[in-house]
Amino acid sequence: MTTVAAAPLAGPAARSVKNRSLPAWPVAGILLLYPLWWALGLGVLIFPLMAAPMLFLLVRRRAAGRPLRLPPGFAWWAIFLIAAVVSIAALGADPTGTVVERASDRLPAVVYKLSMYLSLTVLLLYAGNLTEAELSRRRLVRLLAGMFVLTVAGGLLGMVAGTFEFTSPVEWVLPSGVRNKGFIRSLVHPYAAQIMDLVGGEKPRPAAPWGYTNTWGNNFCLLAGFLLVAAWASRSAGKKALALLCLAISAVPAVASLNRGLWIGIGVLVVYVAIRYVLAGRIWILGVVIAAAGALAAVLTATPLGDTVQARLDNGKSNGVRSYLIERALDGFAESPVIGYGGTRDTLGGRNSIAVGESAGCERCGNFTVGGNGQLWQLLYAHGAVGTAGYLGFFGYGLWRFRRDRSAIGVAASGALVTSFSAMLWYNSLVTPLAFMVLAYALLWRDWIEGSDHT
């Protein structure tokens, strides 16, 4: 039988076929160029900016006749989004022991968070609807691995140049009354570290390029597994060696960050991955874990890093504040258990006195943020039981639905989600941690659709 090559499509038909494809640049551009966005002062603002073209491209492809896929369990996420919107109705409420404000004064922060949740929803749908030809899973893993390398580089910068900061172009163009606001400044002003007194004397704690030390630690845990997957998928011995070197070096800023949540998260990740591999019959992983633990113990014993860890464990200055805020969050949840209060609230003063509070000269003095010390507490307080169930239900359902994915990508992605469940006790997820969580979910989803018979 003679095979006749099809003639190239032309005219409207060709344009229709072309319009059905999704370009990789919105996702790749966010990740690959994130240092540029950070330096420009865009940082997390790049997510809503990129969500606009991603949404347009999804709608265009849908109009061209190609169906839009929704991830398994998306109904749970829809419940969360609906609850987040409905809870705005309680924005004018002033729970016991909180600063009295008008709903309109609280609305900008709520609109910001809701816009970020919606933007990351678009990111989830876009990344999940990409095909292997448009953006392969291996390339997405390499991009996420690059973000881990960026995190380590930012950590080292925070250690050696803790006071490094500069005025970004976006910051320059903002009116002085706007850019000097603490929240706005945290979005558009690049800096290397947060200077804090946790173990006696003020010390820099790595934050670049994620804005906060806690966010830096959260992203460290979420991204670490992807570096190993990307390196081992390569045939280059040099890349494997560089990945191991990067992991070894990463221990230095991880310890210097004084971030106990990060240390716990890494432990959770290692245990989870070990269990998954043992259940798959790969007992050798136990030898790797033991060897790595021995090497880490030797480093902590032979270097000043061990003293740093011990000093942090001996100085739990934040424990009292965290306990106080958890109590306030649970009390607020008991007062409004269904829809919450629509957003966070500031406490009247500090733990010991209502006389301590913010002033014109100190925006962040005294008034602690209820719901600002962990995603779980914020969900319960701001969006009640319904919003919390939707958020946890979505990621929990994903872990259960994709539990049989034993590929390296599947284990790394599910490991990221598992660490996020421990992190939500002390870290908030917006913005970049949740972005990496939805990208991990998209990888699991695409493995399920396209088959996980790969690295």
UniProtKB/TrEMBL annotation:
One of its GO terms (cellular component) is membrane. The chain crosses the membrane at residues 32-58, 70-90, 110-128, 140-164, 216-234, 241-256, 262-279, 284-305, 380-400, 433-449. It is a multi-pass membrane protein. Keywords: Membrane, Transmembrane, Transmembrane helix. Residues 246-345 form the O-antigen ligase-related domain. It is found in: Membrane. PANTHER family: LIPOPOLYSACCHARIDE BIOSYNTHESIS PROTEIN PA4999-RELATED, TEICHURONIC ACID BIOSYNTHESIS PROTEIN TUAE. This is O-antigen ligase-related domain-containing protein.
